[in-house]
Amino acid sequence: xxxxxxxxxxxxxxxxxxxxxxxxxxxxxxxxxxxxxxxxxxxxxxxxxxxxxxxxxxxxxxxxxxxxxxxxxxxxxxxxxxxxxxxxxxxxxxxxxxxxxxxxxxxxxxxxxxxxxxxxxxxxxxxxxxxxxxxxxxxxxxxxxxxxxxxxxxxxxxxxxxxxxxxxxxxxxxxxxxxxxxxxxxxxxxxxxxxxxxxxxxxxxxxxxxxxxxxxxxxxxxxxxxxxxxxxxxxxxxxxxxxxxxxxxxxxxxxxxxxxxxxxxxxxxxxxxxxxxxxxxxxxxxxxxxxxxxxxxxxxxxxxxxxxxxxxxxxxxxxxxxxxxxxxxxxxxxxxxxxxxxxxxxxxxxxxxxxxxxxxxxxxxxxxxxxxxxxxxxxxxxxxxxxxxxxxxxxxxxxxxxxxxxxxxxxxxxxxxxxxxxxxxxxxxxxxxxxxxxxxxxxxxxxxxxxxxxxxxxxxxx
Length: 462
Fold this sequence. Notes:
Helix content: 25-40%
Strand order of the largest sheet: 5-4-3-2-1-7-6
Structural class: alpha/beta
Number of strands: 14
Oligomer: single chain
Largest sheet: 7 strands, parallel
Low-confidence stretches: 1-27
Strand content: 15-25%
Shape: globular
Number of helices: 13
Mean pLDDT: 93
Distance between the termini: 69 Å
């Protein structure tokens, strides 16, 4: 009798446990995303991206061979027939030169992926995004649907995407892959375009097979889509791809994507928002975003004829970074390597200067959140970030009086003020109006302007 009762109770407990498992099943299981924007846009952004803050963009391809004008060389030359590009080719190359003739000269002879990874690490980059395929259609890996127009069949005869990925992962840097949906002169794309995008031969035979191949082969942390602007999502099959990426791909839990997936997607759909190249929102956006910028202000690809006045200086880079992070964005800074695979010394110097600044001030950047105020009302040279109860005030110009006035934070008797890179605490007093007045460390007079950007750490303020 007792044994029977025990068995009965055991069966009831097992049944109860089964019922609980069934009831909680949908809650415990990861949600399945549908191939529509309402579902895809609801996916939470993996936390690593917002924490990373700083990335390096690399534009590298056959356009690095003429190294003139910009990475849009082929389009300006043979799409728009611009006279300056036609003159350039006539003067420098044999008659009847075609753009495809540049590919064998894309040698990557001096490409040392581990040296690149070390440079990017010293620059303070937490992620790196490489062009796997720009609008020219040349793939920097051995794409099986890009016959003789890829880096294994011609040019470097190397898997550039794979080699850099391995080196970055050895350095614990996240890896992003830039991929252009469109290809300017691909006959399949031009035929689809001619049909008003009613046919999808290019998508089914070229661009989507390549995207799936990139994900399965290289397992990227980020997909930086581009080349979306001419056609709707229904043509590109963007939502189907993203549903697979989020539901079933090998990177479904960690992968991050941007917003360039269709002709009206930017700033509306996808993962985080780019909105536009070199986008500056001006106020705090409600959606996670990224600003991409380029050290060469006139081009993303390498130009052999660039001059120093056309490049961002250290102060400009730091200012863009600080403003971007204060507004809750990530900062993706671009360099264009040469056709041989060299990141020229002036680009290296700019990246290393950024890295040195981050060595001291990175506490106010990495893993930070926007504060209740992003900048001082009276000036655009003081910007705020925060981490929990700690507030950071980053000032871009050193005050001549060695006194920093901040009107936004409200001090308390427990307030402590220090400066990143300096030992000890700083003296402060309550401002006659609101806020506080901070006495900065004395700096020796110098004929040279001091570095750009210092950070005051405020504890015990509201």
